[in-house]
# Entry
Amino acid sequence: MSAPSRSHLGLAFLLAALSTLGPFSIDTFLPAMRAIGDSLAASPLQMQQALTVYLFCYALMMLWHGSISDAIGRRPVVLVTSLLFGLASVGCALSQSLGALLLFRALQGLCGGAGLVVGRAIIRDKLDGTAAQRLMSQVTMLFSLSPAIAPVVGGWLYGAFGWHSIFIFMGLIGFALFALCWFGLEETHPAHARQPLRARQLLANYWQVARARDFQLLTAAVSFNFAGFFLYVPSAPVFLMQHLHLGPSQFLWLFGPAVCGIMFGAYLSGRMAGHFSQREIVTRGYWLMFAAAGLNLAYNLSVDQLTLPWGVLPLALYTTGMSLAAPSITLNLMDQFPSLRGTVSSLQGFFQTMMSSLVAGALAPLAWASPLRLAGSMCALLALGFVCRMCYRRRMRARGG
# Structure
């Protein structure tokens, strides 16, 4: 392996690790949600707020991570947020009431998305074209291990040391990432290229990006695609424990196949880069997602009781297609505004996470009582994503693209 390849692989590991803060905050505590609720005298619906509040704050702060990094540089944003995330995690572990837990979960959310948002901007700062797509795919492959590992680690920690240890573990991750970035992350956004952080200019930048119809359509497409899978994440305790009759330590049955699909899709995206156009890669991703959603719906219509592995295998195929399409769509988004990549990444992350927050707080509780409802909701969300993508393609054809 050449020196540049080693350098890019090291950067991929670091950016993927920074991106894990978000999914670790979501998935690690899922196996212990019931126990945390019992300890804090909170109902299951109240405990769902610990996820919804986190996602809302995660999305809200995404509007600022990229813009702040455009103004002051990428490195300071990553350092401050990783340190604050570690402190917020310790606060969660020490919480004695639901209110305190929600407060520190909100702080986790405010910090948890910086690595993902700023990481995308760092990739585009350093690389272009096929090289950028390959590095984005490498980050996705490495990052995708987190949702599979997190609930397993959470279940083991809860069983061995109690639910407080889960948040202590999150804190250690935050502090470790702070140290790694302090010594290993260079600044990629030079001073001469920075945008001033003025309220009027910031709002103008947001408006410039948000009003672009291509941005709206591509962001909606990737958000709906992801929501088709994410629906199963807040539904995991009910889906696994009630419908599949599994225990708190068996969350890998859901997240394992899904994450294998994410990794395989990211691998395919990297391999296809330079051999197929971004449009062709995205189209193949949609083929896989529609096949998976159709199989999932057909299976749930044909059985009265879910069984393993058939109840979860369609998720692996769906996430393969989702992960195959996502890097190309994301890079297309970033390339629309080369001088505002941080802002674009922030807005795209904001809208996607707000969609996830809506799914977690409203759609999932309505759908998780029935596996058939979950499968039907996946199909509906994917269809919405496909319509948005087709509208974008129609606009491109009209412009001769």
